Amino acid sequence: MIVKACKKHGDLFESDVLKEKFTYKTKEGEKKEGFQLRCLQCRRDKDRVYKLNNPDKHKESASRARNEARRLYREGLSTERAKADIWAQQDRINNPAKYKDWSATTRKRQGQLRNTKEVCRRFEVSVDWYYEKLNKQNNLCAICNNPETRKSRTEGKICALVIDHCHKTGKLRELLCHHCNAGIGHFRDDIDLLKRAITYLETHTHV
C-alpha cells in the first residue's frame, strides 16, 4: 500500500518510509510530540552528505551514542541491543582467536558477496539495489562499456564493479570499473579539467 509520495522518488510503500518523532508548539504555546513520515532514501542521501562533509563530527556522534546506550543499559534503562553490544565487545577481548577464525571462514564462504555487502553497507544501500544496477548495466562499466578486468590481490578473482558517487553531494551515480572510477577520481570530478584533457589528447595524438 502506498503511504506517501516523494517529489524525488515518487510513490512510497511502507518499507520505503521512515517514521520520525518531532516536537511542535500549538497556538497556545504548548509543546507536543507527533510523528511524520519521511522518504527513507532522501534521509539516507542527507545523512551520506553530512558524513562526507563532517567525518570527525559523525565519528564523535556515533561514539557518543554507543557509549550512552551502554551506560543506560548498565543502569537498567536501555535495550537488549546494548546488552548484546556490550557482550560482543567483551567477548572479542576474551576470545580474539575465535573471531579471527570466524572472519577467515566467513570471507572464504561468502567470497565476493562479502565485499559487496560491505560496500553496500558503507553507501547505505541494499545488496538488491546493487544487483539491480548491475543487471541494468549488463555487468558492464557505465563509462567504457567493458567488464571489470581488475583482479583481487588476495584471491586473484575478478573484482566487482564499484559504486561511483559525487564527492560534493554524496549522491550515488552508476557502477564503474576500477580504471574509469580511478580516472574520474584523479581528475577530481572536474568537468573543465576533463575537457582540457580531451583537447590535449586530440592535439597531441598523431595518426
How does this structure look, described?
The protein is of the alpha+beta class. The chain has three domains: 1-53, no CATH class; 54-94, no CATH class; 111-202, His-Me finger endonuclease fold, CATH 3.40.1800. 53% of the residues lie in helices and 17% in strands. The protein has eight helices and six strands; from the N terminus they run E-E-E-E-H-H-H-H-H-H-E-E-H-H. Strands 1-2 form a two-stranded antiparallel sheet. Strand 3 and strand 4 form a beta hairpin. The protein is extended and about 75 Å long.
Question: Could you list some keywords that capture this structure?
Answer:
single chain; 207 residues; alpha+beta; His-Me finger endonuclease fold; 3 domains; two-stranded antiparallel ribbon; 8 helices; 6 strands; 53% helix; extended
Structural class: alpha+beta
Order of helices and strands: EEEEHHHHHHEEHH
Strand order of the largest sheet: 1-2
Mean pLDDT: 84
Task: Give the total of beta strands.
Answer: 6
**Unreliable parts:** none
CATH architecture of the largest domain: 3-Layer(aba) Sandwich
Shape estimate: extended
The CATH superfamily of the largest domain bears the name His-Me finger endonucleases
Question: How are the SSEs placed, and which strands pair?
Answer:
Layout: E1 2-6, E2 10-13, E3 17-25, E4 31-39, H1 40-53, H2 55-74, H3 80-94, H4 96-110, H5 112-123, H6 127-136, E5 162-165, E6 172-176, H7 178-186, H8 191-204
Antiparallel strand pairs: 1-2, 3-4, 5-6
